[in-house]
Amino acid sequence: MNRSTLQQRTQAQLKTYGLDERRKQRVSGMSGGQKQRLALAAATMHNPELLFLDEPTSAVDPENRREFWEQLFDLSAQGTTILVTTHYMDEAERCHRLAIMEAGEIRADDEPEKLMQQMGVNVVEIKAPALRSLKEKLLNFSQVRSAAQLGIRLRVLVHRDVIDPILWLRHTFPQLAAAELTLARPSLEDVFVTVTGKGRQ
Known about the structure:
By secondary structure, the chain is an alpha+beta fold. The protein contains eight helices and eight strands.
């Protein structure tokens, strides 16, 4: 890239990533989101065919995270293949294809929606008293893959060989007779605990 092309490309990148008004600012004085945009601008100066990003939004607030991902989708639409590592399940769900790794081995690999459809469990959410003790009891049953408390709800993954998971839960735990039990849409976090060894907790 010659000097003239470099200058033109730099101007274009600063404008694309909303940094043209900060061209004279030191990087040390930028916010986390601005630093990430600057890093992305630098990484894409040469229009790469493949871009690898290792947890690019780990120190970025939710608003800047969303904006950052919009910029990644723009790059993808322009033909760049992007590999991203992340611990944020909501970010993983944005990807066109997802691989879940544990101890250096790929445990699942497919489109996020397909992974959620194929995970082999039904998700039941329970609103009831004494959720902590209920969770401990649930984990004693082989039919239960995972149980996790989310605020005032208990999210339970029940193996699909249980034909009616809600009926089974009410029958097995009489204290749930008047409780609110609903089937829920699977999430990528559910997929993660199903395909790794971190489910029964």
